[in-house]
Write a structure and sequence with these properties.
Elements (H helix, E strand, L loop, with lengths): L25 H20 L4 H41 E5 L14 E5 L9 E6 L2 E9 L4 E5 L4 E4 L6 E4 L4 E10 L4 E5 L7 H5 L4 E3 L3 E10 L5 E2 L2
Antiparallel strand pairs: 1-2, 2-11, 3-4, 3-11, 4-9, 5-6, 5-8, 7-8, 9-10, 11-12
């Protein structure tokens, strides 16, 4: 008798669930098909009709669709949480509760500020004070000299100013009423709607320490009609 080539027997595994996708591997695909056929015969023997099988197939398809939907929702929730965490770590959301920065910022607006502590002259920023959170504009940085003249004008210089100083195109002389150096680690701050005062400078009321700084004001986000950068 001629030698006959032996083929490996296909061991049937547990029948797959109805609606389960077939494997890309030929051996596994055969096992799935055979298992499905065995399941169909078993159900037919137990009195399952073709309509029963169709209903079961539709049910399994709905279950699979809901599972896919759950995965999509989970991914969206994870992305939203990641964005929210990033915003919380890098930015601060604050309410404007005073009109001292008008017209740049108005009472009731919502502002997003960067938590980067680096500030330059002219920057609008949020900071903590005894009233909660306030906004101001950097007039002078650490080490600068701030002087209030007799005519009410404000002079910022890198060195101390004393005696008189020529102001404006008319070259009129104004006497220095008070001059003070901004401490290291602090900023001289005024609101756009505020004027420099001798008391504010003398009593350091207009100085903001770096540990009070929340961050540079970037965008007005509410009300939407005022949406835009803070300048």
């Amino acid at each position: 008798m001629a030698n006959q080539q032996a083929f490996p027997a296909i061991e049937l595994q547990a029948p797959p669930k109805w609606g389960q996708s077939l494997s890309d591997k030929p051996a596994e695909r055969l096992e799935q098909i055979a298992g499905a056929a065995a399941e169909a015969r078993r159900r037919a023997a137990e009195g399952f009709t073709t309509d029963d099988l169709r209903r079961e197939l539709k049910r399994s398809q709905r279950v699979r669709a809901w599972k896919r939907f759950g995965v999509v929702v989970g991914v969206i929730v994870a992305l939203v949480a990641a964005v929210a965490l990033t915003v919380m770590l890098l930015f601060s959301v604050n309410f404007v509760n005073a009109g001292t920065m008008a017209p740049a910022l108005k009472n009731g607006q919502v502002v997003i500020s960067s938590k980067d502590p680096g500030l330059s002259s002219g920057d609008v920023f949020a900071y903590r004070d005894r009233d909660g959170v306030s906004f101001g504009r950097v007039i002078a940085g650490p080490g600068s000299w701030v002087s209030i003249m007799s005519d009410g004008s404000l002079t910022i210089s890198e060195t101390a100013v004393s005696g008189t100083s020529e102001q404006g195109d008319s070259h009129s002389s104004a006497e220095v009423k008070i001059s003070r150096q901004v401490p290291v680690g602090s900023y001289y701050v005024l609101g756009d709607a505020e004027d420099a005062t001798i008391n504010g400078l003398a009593n350091a009321e207009d100085f903001v320490a770096s540990d009070q700084v929340i961050g540079k004001a970037l965008f007005k986000v509410w009300p939407l009609v005022n949406f835009g950068p803070v300048v």
